[in-house]
Amino acid sequence: MTAPIRFLTGITTSGTPHLGNYVGSIRPSVQASLRDGVESYYFLADYHALIKIDEPARIQRSTLEIAASWLAAGLDPARVVFYRQSDIPEIPELTWFLTCVTGKGILNRAHAYKASVDKNSAAGLDADADVSAGLFMYPVLMGADILMFNAHHVPVGRDQVQHIEMARDMAHSFNHRYGEHFVPPQAAIEESVATLPGLDGRKMSKSYDNTIPLFAPRPELKKLIAGIKTDSRTPGEPKDAEGSALFQIYQAFASADETAALAQAFAQGIAWGEAKDMLFERIDREIAPMRARYEHLMAHPQEVEALLLQGAVKARAVATPFMARLRQAVGLRGLAHTVKAAAKAVKTDTASLKQYREADGRFYFKLVDAKGAVLLQSRGLDSPQMAGQSIALLKARGLDALADLQDRLEPFDADHGPLRQALQALSAPTE
Ligand code: TRP
């Protein structure tokens, strides 16, 4: 069986889910999590919320609303790893590791940070006025979210693509320094998922205050839909489907046949009021069964809490050992271990091959004896593969490999006793 593809995405806990979030993120993510061969990590990005929001009650409320919405929309916590970012202490720890391998200049170029700086400059203010270090570090925290679980695909909106590219950079610079630990992630942009227009026809978004809450009670949903902006054409006058917010929202919920039927009704001059009724009923048909579950979960927050804590246990089963490995890799190590390792090296008394990269950007390998004295030194090579191949050849053929590798090696004395012994030992079959 092939290894599953890992999807990961985070939802900032800063608001109440609306129909745009449902169509653009919740619905496709829940569907994707049901596919075979896919492993999904979905989480509530509450550390990210702290960057924008300093109302504790709102963070808590939003966390509950978003978790309840995803669960109500059919997310199966047994199939996916569904957790709250702040339940995973390894994430801020990894954030620091990544901070130390991320160029400050890269973060200077992040869109969200730059937008704030540009706005300040245009207003004649200090460039960093009211910009927190949290906003500046946003991409690193997001990089840690992604790299912690070595996600392959990160479904996000277009505005987040730059962040995924930054996470790739972080993966590369960490791997470059400390060995291959991270999989460079890729943004997964769902081209087929439309952005939903809001009440005023602009993109549905909290910042435009034009949203329809996903789980508004039926009467409120009806009222909000009645408020969708339309033109002033009277009943009987043909109406344009194109450019109509009402039509687009309908399309996001309806089948192709239903959509075609509405298009025809538009051409035949359906009254706006009647079209709004159709839209209301169509949305409610999809949402009503979920709304019951949502209302149940909102009334029983302890159930949501328990599910999130179970999710955190699953997430940490991956994060804790991985973080331990990363701590080792960067040199945050127990001291007792060093002492033992040194003692062992003396005892075994074997030579070893090392592969590394120098400041000149080239790749090297060398054979050193147990005390660290160099027996064989490579020249600078173009790729890590060349160094790896050479090492493999030395291990497979020992002394016999030397002639073939001559071009890759600094001059050496093939008759040097310790070199010959080391190569013989290296290529001897192990027990
Ligand atoms: N920044 C994302 C947004 O605003 C939320 C987020 C946080 C995220 N961490 C993530 C998305 C990791 C994908 C992967 O939409």
How would you describe this protein?
With 431 residues, the chain is mainly alpha-helical. It has three domains: 5-196 and 300-329, Rossmann fold; 215-291, Tyrosyl-Transfer RNA Synthetase, CATH 1.10.240; 347-427, Double Stranded RNA Binding Domain. It has 17 helices and eight strands. It has helices spanning 19-33, 46-52, 56-72, 90-99, 104-108, 111-122, 133-148, 161-178, 218-226, 245-253, 256-267, 272-299, 301-330, 335-348, 384-397, 402-405, 417-427; strands at 5-12, 38-45, 81-84, 153-155, 186-188, 352-357, 363-368, 374-377. The strands form three sheets. Strands 1-2-3 form a three-stranded parallel sheet. Strand 1, helix 1 (19-33) and strand 2 form a beta-alpha-beta unit. Helix 4 (90-99) crosses helix 7. The longest helix is centred in the C-terminal third of the chain and has 30 residues, at 301-330. The protein is elongated, with a radius of gyration of 29 Å. The two termini are 31 Å apart. The mean pLDDT is 93. It binds tryptophan.
Chart the SSEs and their pairings.
Layout lengths: L4 E8 L6 H15 L4 E8 H7 L3 H17 L8 E4 L5 H10 L4 H5 L2 H12 L10 H16 L4 E3 L5 H18 L7 E3 L29 H9 L18 H9 L2 H12 L4 H28 L1 H30 L4 H14 L3 E6 L5 E6 L5 E4 L6 H14 L4 H4 L11 H11 L4
Parallel strand pairs: 1-2, 2-3, 4-5
Antiparallel strand pairs: 6-7, 7-8
The structure holds tryptophan.
Give the tags.
8 strands, Double Stranded RNA Binding Domain, Rossmann fold, Tyrosyl-Transfer RNA Synthetase, binds tryptophan, 17 helices, three-stranded antiparallel beta sheet, three-stranded parallel beta sheet, mainly alpha, 431 residues
